[in-house]
Each structure stands twice: as structure tokens, then as C-alpha cells.
Amino acid sequence: MSRPAATTPKAGSRKAAAAALPLVRPSRMLATNGGGRLEPVPGFNAVRARSEGFRGGRVPAALRDRRLGVAGDIEFARPQFTFGNDDRVPISDASALPWRCVCQLVVEGLFGQEVLGTGWLAGPHTVITAGHNLFSPSTGRQASKVWVMPGRAGDAVPYGLEATTQFDVHPMWRGQGDRNCDVGVVWLDAPMGEQLGWFGIGAYSDAQLRGLIVNNAGYPADKPLGTQWFNAGRVLSAKPQALTYGLDTEPGQSGSPIFHFTEDEQRIVVAVHAYGDSGENIGVRVTADMLATLAGWVR
Length: 299
What we know:
It is a single chain. With 299 residues, the chain is of the alpha+beta class. The protein has a single domain (14-28, 46-83, 93-297), classed as Thrombin, subunit H (Beta Barrel), CATH 2.40.10. 14% of the residues lie in helices and 32% in strands. It has seven helices and 21 strands. The strands form four sheets. Strands 3, 5, 6, 7, 10, 12, 13 and 14 form an eight-stranded mixed β-sheet that branches. The longest helix is centred in the last third of the chain and has 10 residues, at 288-297. The two termini are 29 Å apart.
């Protein structure tokens, strides 16, 4: 399925105002670094070439502690599942597209301990994640600092890392703990997305979503720390503000992108993975209103 065309509906209602934005905000990945690509030559150190010019290196010791917790576990009491045989596979080269646009988060101050989460680049300075990685409605506490590591690979951060205190969550998550609005944003000082790229964001119709094959990558806490894992599957149901899917996830992947890989090589996020319930994994659906919120956060 190709991505839906942008439309401009009639003005007059809140929904119309939100949908006045393009229904698809395109991704920007292949255009990074002047559009140049590496030839796939066996044995060549592609990670070294891609990470030239970045202050990459080793993850600080405090962020390599295997005892780090998971925000979703604390907020929801184990919010995610694998179904049947766990067929997640590790990303062998997280420095490549699109995996370098997926970030591991280490969050300080939320529950009195550092916790893990996942986010994804949505603009030059913008990382989207789950709201519960940044703010807990049950305690009223929010993060004090967020470490962002795009394309983390074990103890290595080929593109460096940044600690930031700039973030926000959806007002309905902050005020009411509405799981349909469990999304948040982290802003970076460095324009990492300019060189690494970013995911697009799309508000699709129910018909376009039902049965759609979607992809996911994130940093699950049940695997070796700092390793990125992939899974894919079909959308099982398109609810008004949520999508359900059978692809496997585990705690630590909250905030990761549920994305459509289109025929024209766009990666369009259609939901932000958040939690699980009654044997299905659930993401916050990108509706026209949610797209307006997410697009308004992009810097």
C-alpha cells in the first residue's frame, strides 16, 4: 500500500483543524548526508564510516548497569507480551537506516531509579516516545533527565549520546492518565536528525490500517542491555485511538515506532507502542488530532 495523499479538509471543527496538516508527514532518511550511500562490500567497517564526525564511543558505566528498571513495568505491571514463539531478531548493525533513528532512553528521576525506554527521531532535534517514560500520573512525578542514545549497540554509541532536561507529554496523559494519549517528546540540543534522519508520521484510515503489515524495533529489557531487536506483523484492529497488533514486544520497548514501510521507501509511524492488555500489544494510534500534536512538537 502506498502512503495516503495529503488532504486539506474544510475548516470549522477541531478535527478539521488538526487534519489541515498533511495526513502524512514524510520521513527523511535516504536524503541525509547528501543522499550518499555506502556500497555493501563484505568485510568493510561500515559503522566506522557512518559514524565519522560524531563523538561516538562507549556508554558511560552508569548507563551500562544491568539492574536498570523499566518505566512501563512500574506504571502498568508488565505491559507487553510475546505471542507463541518469540521470533524477535537482533538488529546486527544499528548504525544503518532506519535503525539508527531508533533510540534507547535511560530516564532519571521518574521512580527513584533509572529506567529504560525507547524513542525514535521525528525531526532534527525531536525524539518521540511513550508518555509513561517521562511522567507518571499515578505518582505525579516526572523525569529529571533523559539520556538519548540513537542506534545504541551494546556498550557502543556510534553517534554519541545526549542528556537533556527538555521534554513534555500529552496534556491528557499528564492530567488524566489517558492511555490513548500516552505519548511524549524529548528535545535535543544537537540536531542529530539532520545527519541520522527521522521517521515520518501518518494518520491512516481504518481501511488502510486493517491487516497492514507493520514493523517495530526497540530496546527490550529482557535482552542484553543496549541491543536493538526487530519484529513485524499485521495490525489486528484499528480502534478510534489505538491500534492492536500481534507482533512481539517486551518491557523496555515502550515508545518504539510501529511503522509502515511504503513502496516508495518511506518509513511512516502509524502508532507509538505503549503497552499490552488481554493478550494483545497496543499502540497509541496516530489520528489526525494526534498527528497535529506530534507535528507541533517537532523541532
